[in-house]
């Protein structure tokens, strides 16, 4: 059990709640943000001393019923609840292993059939494993990058000048990507690759550090994202994230309403991408 990570997570979730959120009187003088530890303990029907020890990284291993009670008391989402159980070592973990990087042939074939929609396959560290031509035209020619540079998080936080993501207040795709990384670090706690990636992002991006230290965990499987492409301009696309069974990989598909401006921009982008590929091919044969 990662006592320190569990303590940080519990404290952050307690501090975001107000008494009225859980049906308790607020009172006029509160020295700490959010709920008090004794209030969480009361809601979870456990002792204040035991809960306090968990937040101080001194508590013994909590049982599954206790974790469930704490999750209910803190009003955790299903994703946050799963993360809590993982931090307490109550879910099966692959110690020391890394996410599967091989893409199934049927998944790769699916990407190529999606000719009108940018699509790519990523693992839980947001490493890009496969992509179709339209995804390369929208985002970047991943084939020209070293494998370690084909990472959405590195692209967004460390190389924003190369990206097409538009900075918006509600960056659902960005928050989802960071949340997947958080889940991966819990599942693979002994992975030196993951530790190095997190350290690199923390050192290189204050924006990532704010999101990471906030303990925010929100995975949206359907939302929208705005792109600012240097050749076709602003494109607002819906995205859907589909999980590949037994591989901890995600297929991310970007779509637009037929006959919309975004859809027409995608069609233009497909033509531009094809022309670029032809130009590259001509350069190779000259």
What is the radius of gyration?
22 Å
Overall form: elongated
Helical percent range?
40-55%
Order of helices and strands: HHHHHHEEHHHHHEEEH
Quaternary structure type:
single chain
CATH class of the largest domain: Alpha Beta
- How much strand content do the residues show? 5-15%
Give the number of helices. Answer: 12
Low-confidence stretches: 277-286
What is the number of independent domains? 2
Structural class: alpha+beta
Mean pLDDT: 82
What is the CATH T-level topology of the largest domain? Beta-Lactamase
How far apart the termini lie comes to 60 Å
Strand order, sheet with most strands: 2-1-5-4-3
Number of distinct beta strands: 5
Overall CATH architecture of the largest domain: 2-Layer Sandwich
Q: What does this entry look like structurally?
A:
The protein has 286 residues and is an alpha+beta fold. It folds into two domains: 3-87, 434 Repressor (Amino-terminal Domain) (Orthogonal Bundle), CATH 1.10.260; 105-285, Beta-Lactamase. It is 47% helix and 13% strand. The chain has twelve helices and five strands. The protein has helices spanning 3-16, 37-44, 48-55, 64-73, 78-87, 105-113, 133-138, 152-158, 172-187, 192-204, 206-213, 261-285, and strands at residues 119-123, 128-131, 222-229, 233-244, 249-255. Strands 2-1-5-4-3 form a five-stranded antiparallel sheet. Helix 10 packs across helix 11 (206-213). The longest helix is centred in the last third of the chain and has 25 residues, at 261-285. The chain starts with a helix and ends with a helix. Mean pLDDT is 82; it is low at 277-286.
């Amino acid at each position: 059990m990662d006592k320190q990570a569990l303590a940080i997570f519990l404290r952050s979730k307690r501090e975001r709640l107000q008494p009225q959120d859980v049906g308790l009187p607020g009172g006029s003088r509160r020295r700490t943000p959010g709920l008090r530890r004794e209030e969480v303990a009361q809601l979870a029907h456990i002792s204040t001393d035991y809960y306090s020890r968990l937040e101080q990284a001194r508590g013994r291993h909590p049982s599954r019923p206790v974790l469930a009670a704490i999750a209910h008391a803190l009003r955790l989402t299903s994703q946050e609840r799963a993360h809590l159980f993982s931090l307490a070592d109550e879910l099966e973990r692959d110690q020391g292993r890394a996410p599967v990087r091989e893409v199934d042939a049927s998944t790769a074939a699916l990407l190529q059939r999606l000719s009108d929609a940018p699509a790519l396959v990523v693992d839980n560290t947001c490493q890009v494993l496969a992509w179709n031509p339209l995804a390369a035209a929208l985002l970047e020619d991943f084939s020209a990058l070293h494998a370690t540079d084909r990472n959405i998080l590195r692209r967004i936080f460390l190389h924003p000048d190369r990206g097409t993501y538009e900075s918006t207040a509600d960056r659902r795709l960005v928050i989802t990507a960071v949340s997947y990384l958080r889940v991966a670090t819990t599942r693979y706690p002994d992975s030196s690759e993951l530790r190095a990636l997190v350290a690199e992002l923390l050192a290189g991006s204050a924006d990532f550090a704010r999101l990471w230290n906030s303990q925010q965990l929100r995975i949206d499987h359907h939302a929208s994202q705005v792109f600012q492409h240097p050749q076709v301009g602003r494109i607002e696309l819906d995205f859907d994230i589909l999980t590949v069974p037994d591989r901890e990989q995600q297929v991310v598909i970007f779509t637009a309403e037929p006959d919309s401006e975004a859809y027409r921009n995608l069609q233009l982008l497909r033509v531009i991408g094809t022309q670029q590929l032809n130009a590259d091919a001509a350069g190779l044969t000259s």
